[in-house]
Amino acid sequence: xxxxxxxxxxxxxxxxxxxxxxxxxxxxxxxxxxxxxxxxxxxxxxxxxxxxxxxxxxxxxxxxxxxxxxxxxxxxxxxxxxxxxxxxxxxxxxxxxxxxxxxxxxxxxxxxxxxxxxxxxxxxxxxxxxxxxxxxxxxxxxxxxxxxxxxxxxxxxxxxxxxxxxxxxxxxxxxxxxxxxxxxxxxxxxxxxxxxxxxxxxxxxxxxxxxxxxxxxxxxxxxxxxxxxxxxxxxxxxxxxxxxxxxxxxxxxxxxxxxxxxxxxxxxxxxxxxxxxxxxxxxxxxxxxxxxxxxxxxxxxxxxxxxxxxxxxxxxxxxxxxxxxxxxxxxxxxxxxxxxxxxxxxxxxxxxxxxxxxxxxxxxxxxxxxxxxxxxxxxxxxxxxxxxxxxxxxxxxxxxxxxxxxxxxxxxxxxxxxxxxxxxxxxxxxxxxxxxxxxxxxxxxxxxxxxxxxxxxxxxxxxxxxxxxxxxxxxxxxxxxxxxxxxxxxxxxxxxxxxxxxxxxxxxxxxxxxxxxxxxxxxxxxxxxxxxxxxxxxxxxxxxxxxxxxxxxxxxxxxxxxxxxxxxxxxxxxxxxxxxxxxxxxxxx
Length: 589
What we know:
Elements: H1 9-27, H2 36-48, H3 58-68, H4 72-91, H5 95-105, H6 108-116, H7 122-129, H8 145-167, H9 170-181, H10 187-203, H11 207-220, H12 225-238, H13 241-256, H14 280-285, H15 291-304, H16 308-323, H17 326-329, H18 341-354, H19 358-372, E1 380-382, H20 394-429, H21 433-447, E2 450-452, H22 464-487, H23 491-504, H24 509-521, H25 525-537, H26 540-548, H27 555-563, H28 570-588
Parallel strand pairs: 1-2
């Protein structure tokens, strides 16, 4: 409450500098908001000089103080306070304000020196050119301005590197992050910087360089587990599955251990780089995966790579985690590696099926079927065109909500139909053809709930992925049921199913081959021979192109597609060739 007095201001500003640093160090959390104490200190300086600045913003206030206050005794305390202000602005990503402040703090000599470093980053050049005021023994500091300057340089380089990385300017980002890596920071921040360097190199298409940076991050601080997560992603990109799985296994084990007590690697500094850099892009790059996400990634990668036994083990571990309330622990947002839970169950069923555990696969699918039954409407209309009102109108919000609800219903329908599909294949493998036919029929009956309106060819683009999945399930069910009808000797019904499956997937070699077999068994040998010749003349490239069209299949359908192949066609081919040969002889005679 005392009036400001010029002789006491150096001490007052030094006490303010120290108290702000103590406050920051004691909170040990990211700096946010304005430094109100600095503003009050500047107003006290103006008050002592007979001026006022209550109506000025912080930047204008600094400009007024540094231009009007010329007392030599106040220059060092003001410069130190300016460095603290720069820290607050860096934490808020106000880089222009920081540059303007150092322009004011710099002497003509400083400015000339900053201009000489042409080609370097402007803000970094200005901070480096700033002359740190000498310390006075009578006014001790809890953190020197020289150390604060080094931290500002590191934070500015790190922050700008992240901004350039987010903007896609990778060479500039790489240069700035390398500058930050050579700066003044703790081990955990250095590991974070190397992790960001690795991500930058990966996006530049340099996976080996990315691995070097990420391994360096782990050498500096093995508790920087996001680096290990990125290592696995790079190995996946390189197609090195063994190394990828090893990295994921190490990550899962590390996440399961209690981290050691975090001893500060920079105990003497109250203001640190980690308190100044906290941007969304950094949060995204350093996102800590939940152990269950890593367990799922292990299961998924093993299943994709054909390591069925390992996939089964990981999926069962994951499902047991589900029973422990996993859904409450992991946010299922866009950044999560986890798909929707029914898809995980279906993938687990696929793994169990491939491992020969057909009864277990049936049980897992039953869980999906029972959980989704109440979520599917009796009839689901899918229009060819969905008129989109103006995006800002209430009608647009309503249409968006209806579309989202329709997508969700289609997803639930696909999951339940896929459950029946897997059960059909599982019963078929167990030799229970009648039960298999029942499950395939339930699958097809479910799919009849979808009514396609319009031309039936071009559906609304917003629903196209879900519709494609349903069409693929319908094709696989028809093919599977047809095969089981053949096993039961019900060849006419089998023929119908194969014809329907070819309508869905024209030219499909498996369906065409089974169609030939059904015709042959029905003693319609001439038709069978004609279809077989047509199939033989079709280019393998055309068939492969037909199969490769559209979006990638969900992982839980891949094993069904692999089963939907025609077995050894040699016996049938020989029979047809013999028939054609005999027919040719009869004609010639």
